[in-house]
Input
Amino acid sequence: MRARLGWWGTRADQREAALGTVLAGVATAGYVIVADRVFDTNTTWLEIVSLVLNLACVWLARTENVWTMPAGFAASAVMAVFLFRIELVGQAWLQLAFYLPVQLVGWWAWCRGGRDHTELPPSRLGWRGWLLAAASMVVIWAVAWATFRALYGVTPYQWWDTSVVASSIVAQGLMTWKKAEQWLWWALPVNVSSIGLYAATRAWAFMALYAVFLANAWWGWVLWRRTIAAEGGSGDSQRAVEVVRA
Output
């Protein structure tokens, strides 16, 4: 069984969070320079801040760093403002109504969701979990499409937009409870689809961001599977043995 994890993680977690934020800033600066000088595209401050926070968030999730949650909380708030401005209302409300509160739930779950309120270890999703996830996506997609159509009428890319909303909700739910298959959901129905959607809406910063997310998702999938194998468990009810984290 893993030990209890402090709300701000270990000192190693804190050092990694600081390093991840710096690296995210460097990567964002590189994107801004290329976008300006090569593609003659201006990047707004909202996009810049969102890029830094989102990059840090996914980088930290890859290594189970609890700092992914506060980074994700801040990123969602900033990104929602930008998405409303480009009229992707489904994505915007996804950030405000779901991602913001679920980061708090995930923060608790990662720190206290394991046995005896210890750190929650990653585990695999069984076939019942897969069926539930797939069925949930279909239902959420239909509800989201009907809701946003009623509230905003016909908006650009409405079916596409709400499909990403539904997929993201399922993926974040799996992430909250540390299911390794969350990375597959992030990679395909979320990241690949989002890359196309943001290209269609000419939101180049977020298209680039989701390309990075896609690579990170496959990396996270490999790392989490290795962790589960090393800790000796699998399946919906798996509870890992105690390990020493770097």
About this structure: Helices lie at 11-37, 45-62, 68-85, 89-112, 127-152, 158-176, 182-200, 204-231. The radius of gyration is 18 Å. The chain has one domain: 11-231. Residues 234-246 have pLDDT under 50 and may be disordered.
